[in-house]
Amino acid sequence: MSGHSKWHNIQGRKNAQDAKRGKIFQKLSREIYMAAKSGGPDPDGNPTLRMVIDKARSNNMPKDNIKRAIKKAEGGSEEHYDEITYEGYAPGGVAVFVEALTDNKNRTASDVRVAFTRNGGSLGATGSVAYMFDRKGYIVIDRSTTDADEDQVLLDVMDAGGDDLQTSDDAFEIYTDPKQFADVRDALIKDGYKLADAELTMIPQNTTPVPADKKEQFEHLVDALEDSDDVQNVYTAAADED
Questions:
Q1: For residue 216, how many other CB atoms are within 10 A of its CB?
Q2: CA Rg value for the chain
Q3: Lowest mean pLDDT across 41-50, 71-80, 104-113, 162-171
Q4: Which cysteines link up through disulfide bonds?
Q5: Which string of b and e fits 57-67 if b means at least 16 CB within 10 Å?
Q6: What per-residue string of b and e applies to 25-53 under the rule 16 or more CB within 10 Å gives b?
Q7: Where residue 58 falls among pLDDT bands split at 50, 70, 90?
Q8: CA distance to 124, 138, 191, per residue, from 146 (Å)
Q9: Residues 47/182, Cβ–Cβ less than 8 Å
Q10: How far is 175 from 138, CA to CA, in rounded Å?
């Protein structure tokens, strides 16, 4: 993984999004609904649903909200959302990959286009930046929650089928093949680890530093994309901040 670390930036963005918690719950409800509708309402038999529920819990989403989304899918609701991706460049030439879940493609396309153009970015064609990212399973163990040292964690990760381990002062970050993600996650939980985060994500193969004079624009672009009700995830190839 060439030293790319996500955890510090993830924590920063989660803290910044506390004020937007209601919108986050709305987006998670949409994901839960679609996962339950396509794969069934039982998380034990639906790995995708289980993963989204875990994600919802890590964002402190109330249990009642989770149950309502599942019951809505069980009740035969006719709501349908399309999965769409958008690609482009942020100020400074930083690649951006956006995942959306929408019931109105025109509205979403307009929102994304405006976010890029108003904040110094440029929306690209399909495939323009996707090849710069790899789909990976991503798991985090907060070091304060385990007595295991790096050697022990590495051994357990390899035994579980993980691909890579990165260690920082705060966390163990584990990367997996997407197809092995659920098995690795379950094995680590069985080994007694408490997971701070576990999700499928997009990891840039290479990163680009954001120029100092473009940083504010870059942050505004990401915020504008995340503010869209239809945008589920925003991935960038920005270099990690020190």
A1: 13
A2: 18
A3: 71-80
A4: none
A5: eeeebeeeebe
A6: bebbbbbbbbbbbebbbebeebbbbbbbb
A7: confident
A8: 44, 18, 11
A9: yes
A10: 5
